[in-house]
Amino acid sequence: MHRSVRTAAILKKNMSETQESGITRNSKTVAYSRVIMSHMMLPQDANPAGIVHGGVVMKHIDDAAGVVALRHTRASVVTASIDRLDFHNPAFIGNLLILRASLNLVGTTSMEVGVRVETEDLKTGQIRHTASAYLTFVALDEAFRPCPVPPLTLETEDDRRRNRQARSRREVRLAEKTQETLCRSHPDACVY
pTM (2 decimals)? Predict the structure, then answer.
């Protein structure tokens, strides 16, 4: 077997064992990097109807997810993709935007971070689910090239469930990426 193929197979096996069974050297827990961030929504965040712009919410999602990735790696990180972003309820001027972000999956150089966004009406105390998103981040070394990330230790059943779901999303992302590459090289073979 070619050395790089064998190395990739070993890394994949080790990643799977680490994320399913427990602690390894330099691994970090989901709780280690988890973050909760809050922001008051102000007039500059909203349209004339007082509804917060989706782009404002997206920026806060990216920021919260970036903090999680940075905490886990203690290295520079960049957003590689947003796998999914769903808006469920609007946020309004005066609401407190609450973002709960945690690591779901780590690969060799990349990580998936899940973010749940809620809004609190500070006058009534009502909390509503506003948005959810999954983002992929890549860790970078000093030369801005992808670098290895620490393994992830899954402590709770919730950690393990999120990890399984993230693995499924990763498989879909990789299949889509393969299809996109094929379409770029053979556009006539693609159906849009």
Answer: 0.82
